[in-house]
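Hallway conversation turned thread

IA: we were arguing at lunch whether anyone had actually written out DivIVA domain-containing protein end to end. Turns out nobody had. So, for the record, here is the sequence (174 residues) and right after it the structure tokens. Reply here if something looks off.
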Amino acid sequence: MTAAPLEFDVVLRGYDRAQVQSLLETMQRSIAEPAASGAVTPAQARDRAAFDVALRGYERTQVHSAYERLLDRLAEVHGEDSGEPEEQKLPEFAFDRVLRGYDAAAAVELIDAGVTALQALRSGESDAPTARAAAADLRYRRDALPKALRGYDSTQVDAAVETVCTELEGGAGA
């Protein structure tokens, strides 16, 4: 059985094409023939899933989507639980570096605080008023993020903060 070729848009700064093709094709072969020489397990695929950013590379969100689909199928083939149910997975974000954007360390710290608050809400460790307060605090802190040369794209960081805040406020109402 030959797997369908994976195709991605090529962008100015995306994931290294050779690295992506190598891992994803190996994952496809491993799904088709799990006992074959060179086949990878889901854990091995996760360990190898750090792609370099290169000029004229593959569009990152498309690669992430394809990788996640293949990882789920690979886990099924190996009889593993692919992880948490989709609605329970915590959001993960990747940001582009731009000439002038948010300070990277400060942006990561802010997003981590939001994801931690979301995790606390989902686990029942915090209540609705605490979640709403966390969302308000995230927005306040986002407005105060310092700018830096070669920082994270402010539009992407703003969208990530809004995603987390919306879920915190939506979950708070439940």
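OS: looked through it. The beta strands are 10-15, 53-58, 97-102, 147-152.
IA: good, adding that to the notes. The chain is about 55% helix and 15% strand.
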